[in-house]
C-alpha cells in the first residue's frame, strides 16, 4: 500500500500543477518549486544526539532561520564542513575524528531544515546564504563539502571570488541543476508549461535559467585549489557530474573511486583529504 501511494501521490501533484498552470503559471511555478525544495528527512536521529550535543556551539539567526553550529577545537587551520541534502552534521563523524587526530579546528552547521536548524525547505541559494554568514563569522581556511554542499560552496565562491578560503574539497557533488529538475518532472509528470514557468521563476528570483545553474560555470574562474571525489558507482549523483566540474576548474584534481558509494565515509577518502589539506 505504501509503495502504491508513493507512486500515485507524485503524479497527483503533477496533475494539480498542470491544472493550476492553466490559470496561473506563476502560482504553479511557486508551488512546484516549493514542493521540490521541501525537506522530508535529515533531522537528528536518537543515535546522533549525544555526538552532536557534545559539540553544539551557537545558534545563529540567518534570515528567518535559526542555524545550529558545532565546533571541535584544534590549534591548526579551521575547516568548515558542509553536509548534503536530507542529512546533517553527524554525517561527518568519521572525518571529524580524523581531523581531530591532526589537530585541525573544525566548524560545521546544520543547513536550514536539517539537523537542529529550523525551516522546512532548502535550495542552493538559501544554503549559500547560510554558508556565507558562517564563512564571514568564523573565517575558515578550508571547506570540505558533500553532495549539495559542494555545489553550494562553489556557488558561493562564484558570488564571492575574493573570499579567504584557501582550499575546497567536494565529495559526490552535482554539476547541473537541470538534471535534477528533469528527474523531478519525470516523477511528477507535470507539463512543459509548468517547466517553463519554473524556469522563468528561477531567472526572476535567482538570476539564472535552469540550464544555467551549474557548477562547471561557477568554477570557470576559480583559482582556489580543489580536490574532487566521486565514486563511479554513485547511484544518487553520477560521477560524470564531477568530471564536468573538474574539466572547468583549472586548479583542481579529480579522484574517482569504485565501490565506495555516494556517502564516501571511508578511511582512504578521509586520509586523502587530510593529505590535501596539509600539503603546501
TrEMBL record:
PANTHER family: HYDROLASE, PUTATIVE (AFU_ORTHOLOGUE AFUA_2G14860)-RELATED, MONOACYLGLYCEROL LIPASE. GO terms for cellular component: membrane. GO terms for molecular function: hydrolase activity. InterPro entries: AB_hydrolase_1, AB_hydrolase_fold, AB_hydrolase_sf. This is Alpha/beta hydrolase. Pfam families: Abhydrolase_1 (PF00561). Residues 78-234 form the AB hydrolase-1 domain. It comes from Croceivirga radicis. Keywords: Hydrolase.
Amino acid at each position: 500500500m505504501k509503495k502504491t501511494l508513493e507512486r500515485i501521490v507524485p503524479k497527483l501533484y503533477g496533475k494539480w500543477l498542470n491544472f493550476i498552470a492553466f490559470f496561473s503559471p506563476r502560482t504553479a511555478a511557486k508551488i512546484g518549486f516549493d514542493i521540490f525544495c521541501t525537506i522530508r528527512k535529515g533531522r537528528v536521529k536518537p543515535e546522533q544526539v549525544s555526538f552532536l550535543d557534545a559539540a553544539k556551539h551557537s545558534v545563529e539567526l540567518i534570515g528567518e532561520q535559526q542555524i545550529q553550529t558545532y565546533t571541535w577545537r584544534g590549534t591548526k587551520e579551521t575547516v568548515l564542513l558542509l553536509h548534503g541534502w536530507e542529512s546533517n552534521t553527524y554525517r561527518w563523524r568519521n572525518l571529524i575524528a580524523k581531523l581531530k587526530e591532526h589537530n585541525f579546528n573544525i566548524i560545521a552547521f546544520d543547513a536550514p531544515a536539517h539537523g537542529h536548524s529550523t525551516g522546512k525547505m532548502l535550495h542552493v541559494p538559501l544554503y549559500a546564504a547560510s554558508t556565507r554568514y558562517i564563512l564571514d563569522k568564523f573565517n575558515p581556511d578550508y571547506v570540505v563539502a558533500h553532495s549539495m554542499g559542494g555545489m553550494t560552496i562553489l556557488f558561493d565562491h562564484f558570488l564571492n571570488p575574493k573570499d579567504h578560503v584557501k582550499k575546497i574539497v567536494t565529495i559526490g557533488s552535482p554539476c547541473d541543476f537541470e538534471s535534477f529538475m528533469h528527474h523531478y518532472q519525470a516523477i511528477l509528470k507535470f507539463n512543459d508549461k509548468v517547466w517553463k514557468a519554473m524556469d522563468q521563476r528561477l531567472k526572476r528570483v535567482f538570476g539564472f535559467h535552469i540550464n544555467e545553474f551549474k557548477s562547471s560555470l561557477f568554477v570557470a574562474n576559480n583559482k582556489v585549489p580543489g580536490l574532487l571525489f566521486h565514486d563511479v558507482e554513485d547511484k544518487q549523483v553520477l560521477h560524470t557530474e564531477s568530471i564536468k566540474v573538474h574539466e572547468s576548474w583549472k586548479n583542481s584534481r579529480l579522484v574517482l573511486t569504485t565501490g565506495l558509494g555516494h556517502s564516501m565515509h571511508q578511511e582512504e577518502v578521509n586520509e586523502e583529504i587530510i593529505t590535501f589539506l596539509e600539503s603546501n
